[in-house]
Each structure stands twice: as structure tokens, then as C-alpha cells.
Amino acid sequence: MSPFAGVSTWAALAGLMIGAGHSPIITSVDAFVPRSLQQQSPSCRTSASGTVVLSSTSVGELEGATNGAMGATSKKSVASAPKIAQRWRKSTKQLATLGPASSDREMIEKLFLAGADVFRLNFSHGSQEQKKELLDTIRSVEEQYSHPIAALGDLQGPKLRVGEFSSETGEMLEEGQIFRLDLDEAKGDNKRVMLPHPEIIEASEVGHTLLVDDGKVKLSVSGKGKGYLDCTVEVGGKISNRKGVNTPDSVLEISPLTPKDRSDLEYMLKIGVDWVALSFVQRPEDIEEIHALIDEHLPAGAFRPHVMAKIEKPSCFEGDSLKKIVARCDGIMVARGDLGVECAPEDVPLLQKEIIDECRSQGKPVVVATQMLESMIESPTPTRAEASDVATAIYDGAD
Length: 399
Known about the structure:
Layout: H1 5-19, E1 27-28, H2 35-40, E2 44-46, E3 52-54, H3 56-69, H4 75-85, E4 95-97, H5 105-114, E5 118-122, H6 128-145, E6 150-154, E7 171-173, E8 178-182, E9 192-194, H7 198-203, E10 209-212, E11 217-225, E12 228-235, E13 237-239, E14 245-246, H8 259-271, E15 275-278, H9 284-297, E16 306-311, H10 321-328, E17 331-335, H11 336-342, H12 348-362, E18 366-369, H13 384-396
Parallel strand pairs: 4-5, 5-6, 6-15, 8-9, 15-16, 16-17, 17-18
Antiparallel strand pairs: 1-3, 2-3, 7-13, 8-12, 10-11, 10-14, 11-12
Helix pairs in contact: 1-13, 5-6, 9-10, 10-12
């Protein structure tokens, strides 16, 4: 299966939707537009957040400027020029995550030609040096085709996990049993395990839900003491070493930026990514924290990257938190993976619409992510449901 077929399919579906007249009211292109062209075009305006908003005439101007800037660096780039120039008419962009199968120059170029506008660099995996090599390759392709390609650095965020068990294969928890989470460093068994996060114990109350291993095991807090939680197993299953924990009912008093994230952020500023994606956003103050860090570490004269907040916690929807989060960042990602774990799956489509509507009302770019065309990892064509999913995101106004 071609690694870039999904990008081509998305591009085709996006083209069909836009051709039918369903494009966003505001075209937020921001990092997708070269900074030099932003200055040249009188029809570009910049919102208070720094988001570049184009009128319909400026799209034509930018297309003309791009055509004039197209460098004949190779026969391939010349042959691709008309197709690339048409992208200015495409309101909806495609974001592609680079992984082990798509890290060489040939594949990145193919992904770009297939329709990718943004490449996501996932700092959860691999070294900083590997990300620098990927960014250098992206800039090389960008220069070859004289067409802007945005690079988004995605910070890992806090990883909340249980400790280790005496049995290497883990333990089976039965529905209805009591299971304790505590701060004891001793290896766990079928009655207890270490939870090395006192902030979870502090924030949890009786009746709160804890989800283990992406929701495969569901626990309900039935008792709380100093340094421990007693939980009733509502959905049983196997739990093993270092499985993740989600806390949908609790707002944790922790920073969204771990020491690793702070190091990665400083490195992103050094190498010059266009966007920084912040994981584990719980409250508007989290956005202020990363802005302050950028101010502190941004090299003199360097380009200031835009901040994209990943919405994946239920606390983002409490009161006017979503409105404030959107106002304080430069863009939003609907991170449906963790959002679908912490919220009921049937709620995610409505939450997606709510997020997109808020972003449109404030003129901020919004990305819909996770499990887009996922079946195409194995299949040459998407399912009908996946095609509808892409169409729905575009109809709703995703950028």
C-alpha cells in the first residue's frame, strides 16, 4: 500500500467538497503563505492573532506571485507547477505525519506532490537530531518547488501511567472487584499497583472515573485516603506495566509541559518550525505558559512559531474555557484520539462541531485529526464512512 495514497485521497475529497461550493467562510492560511508573499499582497490582512486572512482576490494574486516565483530547478518541478499553483484555490489543507516509512526525501516529495501542505514532526518518538534532518528535507523540497510547506512540531505532553507489576504479563481485573492505586513503589498484583502521580490522587474524588490503557479498563473511585485511591472495576480487563491513565473527571494541577517538552520546544525554536502543537491543554493558562517560554527562549531575530492547542480534555469545555483557549492560541487541533477516550465516543462529533464553530467565529485555523482514512494503511481505498468523515470536517469548516 502506498504511504501517500491517503494524502491523495484526502486532496481529491477536499477538492470535490470545495468544488461543490463548500469552502470555509474565512480562509486561514497563516504559515502556508510565504512571508514574502504576505508582504507583497495588499489583499492579505493579519488578524490580531497573527493569522493571515485572504480575500478571494488575494488568492489570485498569490497564485500569480507563486507562478512567477516557480523556479525551474528540475523537469519534475516544472511539470508539477500548474498543479502546485492551483493549491491557492484550495481552502482546506492536508496535514501529514512523518514516520519511519516516510522519512526519506523521495517519500516526502511524493507526499507533497500528492497534496500534503503541512508535515507534522512527532517529538514523542525519535531524537531531536532526526527531526532536524526531516525539517531540512522539508525545506529542501520547499525550495525546489518554490512553494511554502509548513512544519508542525508536536510536543509529547505529560504521560500519566501506572507502575509495574510482579507478573511481566500483568494482571486480569474482574468487574466489581476493588483495586487500589497508591504511591507505594512495590510492584503490583491483582489487588493494587503504584500510581506515581500524586496529583491524580489529589484531584480525584469519589465517583470520578479513571481509564486505563486507552479506556480498555474502567475504574470508578469508591474511596480515598492519604496517598491512595480505592477503585471499583466497572469494565474489567488485563492491565500491565506502564499502561496509560486518563482522568476525564479531574483537572490536574500539572503543567502541560514536561522537562522533555521544554527541551524539545527550545530545540524547535532553534531549528525554526512554523507551528508548535501543545498537548494536554486543560485550561487557558496553559497557553500563556507556552507563550512565556517562547518569549524566554526565542533566539534574537528568529521567526516566532505559531501555537496550536490540541483539544483532548473534557475540562476544555467547562464554562467559557474553550472560547478563552481559542482566543489565546493561534490555531486549534481537534485531537479526536484522546478526546474519544476521555469523552463518550458518541459525543465527539458534536464536540468537533463546537470546536470548529468557535474557531470560525474567532477567525482561527482549526485542524481535525486522528483516524482520518486510517483503513488506507492496509487498503487502497477508504471506507464510505471515512469519505463521509472527511466531507463532514470540510462542511463544518475545518482548515
